[in-house]
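Dear Dr. H.,

I hope your travels went smoothly. While you were away I took the liberty of generating a structure for the chain from your last submission, since the lab meeting agenda had it listed for discussion. I wanted you to have the full record in hand beforehand rather than looking at slides cold. The sequence, exactly as received, is reproduced here:
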Amino acid sequence: MERQQPENAIRAYKQAAALEPQSFDAQYGMARAALKIGELDTALVGLTTATRLNPRSVDAQWDLARTLDTRVQSPDRAIDAYRDFEKRFPGDPRTQLIPNRIKALTPAARAAATPKPAPQPKPTPPPQPPPEIVSRPAPAPAQTVEPRVQPRPQPRVEPVPRPQQASKPPPKLNLRKPARRDTVAATTAFNEGRRLLEQRKWNQAIAAFTRAAELDDRFTAAFYNLGFTYSTMGNREMAKAAYVETLALQPDLHEARYNLALLYFQDADYNTATALAQEVVRLKPDYAVAHYLLGQIYSARPETISQARAAYSRFLDLAPTHPAAAVVRQWLATH
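The corresponding predicted structure, in token form, is as follows:
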């Protein structure tokens, strides 16, 4: 079958594996075909199953170790696989390569934040608001309450606040529901997405996180990282959709609610942004940047300046050394 086109070959092997799930040849053949076209989650499942079915297959065990090392980039699991290979096949010449690979992987394994695959690993990068809101100055002092807008030339004229935009529901992600949840394959796809995210390969990261969510529709971190990546790319509507799905799975994930509030604020939907940010500080009163965001929202409208003062003051209480603290103090001194 491997002489066929790779896509046809993997389709044939998947069918064979479905018919005979205990067939080593079907599982190993599927894994090799999947590696050729970059379906790493399928490859890893096939290799893991193949080595379980035939622990004496030297090539399957080696392919598993190399895939974990060079393709999936999971240092701790690769080290385990190399050591298992070394123990099972001490006479194989490839064992001579293993000490150097383990030595190279050990620092990465110690430094890696990636846990061993689990149904719900924490997302990477860690939940952080987009850089704009963290480093963005508070509203300019003097005559304007509008963030990042210079005072008008007329000394006594107040600027007109941005109009409130009507709220509209975010689009649907329209992901496929899994016929059977596969947490192992989902976690592999998720880890691949994190690696791509760190490399700033946004579209590929979205594809990987989408695959993870479709393999396990309860995988909160996959939906969260979809939102984070869409937001980084500037696709605010799809980011909203992903964060809504995240909160449906885990309502107490404050980072997702905060990021969703920020997206609505950026779209000038102050009512929705306010409701979301208020819910964040209700559930987690010490969430400093949520108070900062509330200050931004309230300071955009003259009638809510007093609420802005209260929100900014609370932000300073919680984060007095934050990069935005100095300009917030300046704004408070003039309002």
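Two observations you may find useful: The domain at 6-111 is CATH 1.25.40.10 (Serine Threonine Protein Phosphatase 5, Tetratricopeptide repeat). The longest helix spans residues 183-198.

With kind regards,
E. W.
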